[in-house]
Amino acid sequence: MISKWTFFPGLIFLALWLPAAATRPAAQNAVNQEESKVKPYTLPDLLTGGNGKKALTVQDWEKWRRPEILRMLESEMYGRTPKKRIEIRRQVIEEDTKALGGKATRKQLALFLGEKLNGPRLDVLIYLPNQAARPVPAFLGLNFNGNQAVHSDPAILISRSWQRENRDNGIIDHRATESSRGVDASRWMVEKVLARGYAVVTACYNDMDPDFDDGFQNGIQPLFYRPGQKTPAADEWGAIGAWAWGLSRILDVLEKEKAIDARRVAVHGHSRLGKAALWAGAQDRRFALVISNDSGCGGAALSKRNFGETVGRINTSFPHWFCTSFRKYNDREEALPFDQHMLLALIAPRPLYVASAEEDLWADPLGEFLGAKNAEPAYALFSKAGLGTDRMPPVHQPVGDFIGYHIRAGKHNITEYDWEQYLKFADRHFQSK
Ligand code: GTR
């Protein structure tokens, strides 16, 4: 007989668990972080088109296979970027040729997006090395927390945009405060990058589309709505699309900066901003080099490999990042007609670097390596060598030629070690240009 003491606790447990389970999306139960539990999966062949034909030459790739992949990723994942051109007014807000103790020139520009004066505004921060004899290459990346977070330089304008709450980082009531200056300095290494002869260019991703789900009312999307449109269509861009668009608009600006060689701009990003950097590099071929730091699911990591963050999880936690069409693959990764190796392949033949961190299981380091590995056939069409190995290298042993890869010890972050590798990789590929 069941005693009342075994029965009641069970009932109480059920009563607590049932409502929670009913509201919890099924996808939240399905995250695997054990290699032995990875199920077999098949990747769509990179070079074989929807009609069964295989791309055998650069011409095939350029003429039909690349556009076909790009269209799939647009309409099924990141959403199409509107073709419409909006009005953008550029204003130099501040300039100092003796910044950072005389080592650099700091320039701050505002891009006013759209016709309204009080519309979205993109604040761009540029540091140029002062010693340069000719136009310099640049590292361009979006930042979390605002431009003032990348360096403690007191002259950097404090971001006016909504920011993710983080009191430890000086973000209070969603606004950046004085105490947020330089909180992300270790992720940017401004002095180090300048000393190596590169310009440092950044802007805050929240300037384009604040990183929360508000039904696309407060970012740049409304500037592109057709008359009567209230939200992007199922195959139109989400937040990652907007962030990538912003990177291209900053590149437009760099093309007008005489001190910068816009043909040698590396676009980079960490995590969600790594996803945005990859999507920007895939769409806009003016980016000469692309770097993904721990970009994980929706970035360099394969989706069909069930390890770490899943499509269902990412679409549930961040419903505004991708287009709504992408949600049909929640818990159905096997039905995806593409995978992330195809995103990476769109960057070919330009140099691509993918980096992982050993403890960052959520981003699936091996999945990131395999994303890069399976992009190689596109590079091979251009006679460019990729990783040069089939096996994931051990920690701190970077590999690769036109596709670089490393895994470092530690957590989900960007560290000096990562920067050392990016600088070496960029030196190698940009010196010849
Ligand atoms: C996580 C998210 C990841 C990654 C990360 C980040 O919460 O699940 O996809 O983007 O945030 O941006 O740091």
End-to-end CA span: 82 Å
Helix proportion: 25-40%
Question: What is the alpha-carbon Rg in Å?
Answer: 22 Å
Secondary-structure element sequence? HHEEEEEEHHEHEHEHHEHHEH
- Gross morphology is globular
Per DSSP, what share of the residues sits in E-state strands of 2 or more residues? 15-25%
Mean pLDDT: 94
Q: Which structural class matches the secondary elements?
A: alpha/beta
- How many β-strands, per DSSP? 11
What is the topology, as strand order, of the major beta sheet?
1-2-3-7-4-8-9-10-11
Bound molecules: beta-D-galactopyranuronic acid
Poorly predicted ranges: 1-28
What is the number of helices? 11
How is the quaternary structure best described? single chain
**Main sheet record:** 9 strands, mixed
Question: How does this model look, in words?
Answer:
With 433 residues, the protein is of the alpha/beta class. Among the domains are: 43-78 and 295-412, no CATH class; 88-213 and 251-263, no CATH class. The protein contains eleven helices and eleven strands. It has helices at residues 4-23, 58-78, 185-188, 190-195, 239-255, 272-283, 311-317, 340-345, 365-373, 376-381, 416-431, and strands at 88-99, 104-113, 121-129, 136-143, 171-172, 175-176, 199-204, 260-270, 289-293, 352-357, 403-408. The strands form two sheets. A nine-stranded mixed sheet has the order 1-2-3-7-4-8-9-10-11, with helices on both faces. It has a two-stranded antiparallel sheet with strand order 5-6. Helix 5 crosses helix 6 (272-283). The longest helix has 21 residues, at 58-78. Residues 1-28 have low confidence and may be disordered. The structure holds beta-D-galactopyranuronic acid (GTR). Residues 271-272, 296-297, 309, 314, 317 line the site of beta-D-galactopyranuronic acid.
